[in-house]
Please model this.
Amino acid sequence: MMPDSFAAALWIGLSALNVVLLVAVLVILLLITRQLKRARLMRRKMRDHVVRIRADIQKYDKKLGRRFDRSIWPQVESLTSLYRLLDGKIDLPPTRRWAVSPDFLWHVAESIRRHAPKTIVECGSGTSTVVMAHLLNTLGQDGHIYAIENHVPTIDAVRAQLRRHDLERFVTIVAAPLVERQYPGVETLFHWYDLGSDAVPAGVDLLIVDGPVSTANELARYPAGPELFPKLSRDAHIFVDDTGREDELRMLRWWRKLYPDLGIRHLAAEKGCAELFLLDRKIEDYLPREWRHSASAPPSS
Model:
């Protein structure tokens, strides 16, 4: 009986061991399966994350590329053109951050070169004042700039630049603090330059509107219309900076209601630029000389 009992016990023991081993194998397979599922899930998440990263890189690469093309290159080209127009013999003040951008300066410089304005009035002095004085000197024109400014440190800096380059004879700086102004039909209380009646002469041929700063109040530069437009000559040109902002666009619409005879032409510029002129003249008079009487002249915008 002993051998049979031993065999039976051995068989039972081996069977139990097989069951334990089978359970262990099943548990291991279950754990492996779970790990594989987890690994596949992690792989899928990583793949999706990589796809998103690549998409973001492409998006920002395109965005930065467009911004570079739209902002940097035009500024470099405009600045190079300015130096070429000025014979490359001068050093210009900074044209970044708060200062006027080179592309806006180039539009103004081209207008000065083509039309030789005698009386130039500028709302907001700075880099543009010095550049325009350089232009008048280089081009041999007898125009004069009246630069209106309320910020004393800016006035001192501009005067120092003009003195350094012996350009003081081309510029009269009109130091004028900001005072409250209100105009018929407009509820906004403005802060505009405190100008005496003879601070700016009549017969203004070129008006640059780039001040006061937009933080003065809403539509801060609107008063340039009712205050200075009556002093414009018949052939005057007006350049408005920062027309990429909603305030300046609203201002242009308000001016157009005040002066229906006003033509507005938007020019390519980093911060936005608008050239204004009186519509009772032929549009050809506002085109460059080389475009006139030419079948290939581009349409005015």
About this structure: Strands lie at 119-123, 144-149, 171-175, 178-181, 190-193, 204-209, 232-241, 262-267, 273-278. Residues 1-85 form one domain. Residues 282-301 have pLDDT under 50 and may be disordered.
